[in-house]
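Methods: example folding runs. The two proteins below were folded one after another, and each record is reproduced exactly as written to the output file, sequence line first and structure-token line second.
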Amino acid sequence: MKGKRDQITGAVLVILGIVVFLMTTTFSIPITSSYPGPRMLPDIAAFGFVVCGLGIFIESVVSKREETCYLKKEGWLKVGLVFLMIAGYIAGMMVAGYLITTPVILYILTTVFAKGSSSTIKGRIVFSLLTAVIIYLIYVLAFGLTLPSGLLFN
């Protein structure tokens, strides 16, 4: 039996979920009812990866539909570009911090994927800034956590 693309995707998600969970077990701060700590959100994500991966895998095994072409060359180039941008985002966060790097990378990502849509430069800028600020406020004010400030501002 030839493996379907969805089976591979489901298996990768399950493995990724397990890896994330195993990585969070190295955190020294335990989860308590008074302070969930930095481990709670990655554990929830790991659980979601495993559940969704199992669902995708099982649905693919049960399904009898034929596969079609997944991505053309341009699509694979965009996937590669996104991975490069994520690597750049991580490097940028270490240097310039969250508040500078996040709006920039969000603008670049929305510009890359705006091809064929009616989005404007102004709309992408507003979206990028608002998203970064909302996430910052949720993490800092609601959760009381800190986000990377970068080497430039330490």
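Second run, written to the same file directly after the first:
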Amino acid sequence: MVHIGTISLRPEPLLLAPMEDITDRSFRSICRQMGADMVYTEFVPSDGLIRNINRSHNKLILTDEERPVGIQLYGHLIESMVDAAKIAEEAKPDLIDINFGCPVRKISRRGAGAGMLCNIPLMVSMTEAIVRSVNIPVTVKTRIGWDEKNKNIVEIAERLQDTGIRAITIHGRTREQFYKGNVDWNMIAAVKNNPRMKIPVIGNGDIISPQTAKEAFDKFGVDGLMIGRAAIGKPWIFREIRQYLDTGELPPPLTVQEKVELARFQFRKSIEVKGEKRGILEMRRHFSAYFKALPNFKDIRIRLVTSLDVHEINTILDRIKITYPNY
């Protein structure tokens, strides 16, 4: 078993990464059904919570079908992050995760997200203050360093562990890389193999298939894997990976009929969670990903991701089933 504070996960757990405008309640619940062992909210800004911004507070709404679920917070000020952590704790998540990894410029240039990699003392002080302020497990998600010359994750991980965090997730790229270039799994392994490290080390970055997941566990020895972009439009990747890890065999691929019904279910949940207009807009990226492999799909895709009418979208989904009966 892998233990994150009071949370017990099966060996080689698979976690859904927090992603803005992606991991809302609808997507989290589907990924749990598809085999994710734990899921996380979208990024929750500390300023939005302490200023009572509705959109930020709505991200704290959790359901039992998602558990175990973590709320991920980001911010650049210790006091604001501590206050936000206390607010988030009231939503009764299973843990609070601190975002020290988001590379997006509007976040990192303020010193939040991966921007905190430029101020390790502040990162450590903030983490320590949050750990002291709440009564549930606190974890961190970060990167291997700011740039190629500053891959200092081994030292960072030790210092964060000393603050009392219960697990660390490491994306194997620097902030400078964003999501480009190679993932340095050797740096993640260096943290895992550090004899001082006692908490679970979760690897993240380019886990796109059952085979890459197995290699990460077998070759680099991480305690768990966090999967992000590869789950968009393919939430069943968790089920595929789990079967491959357990049996060495791949499950049969989903048919278009099955994908349509899963997309329709997520679409319905998205509207329930975020209302019709926002639910439609935020499903567009998912719709494109669900059916991207279909041939001659451009015209249908354009209609699917431009319509603002629920009935029309459901009609287009029905049309996909008719047009591609043998896929």
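Comment on the second run: The radius of gyration is 20 Å.
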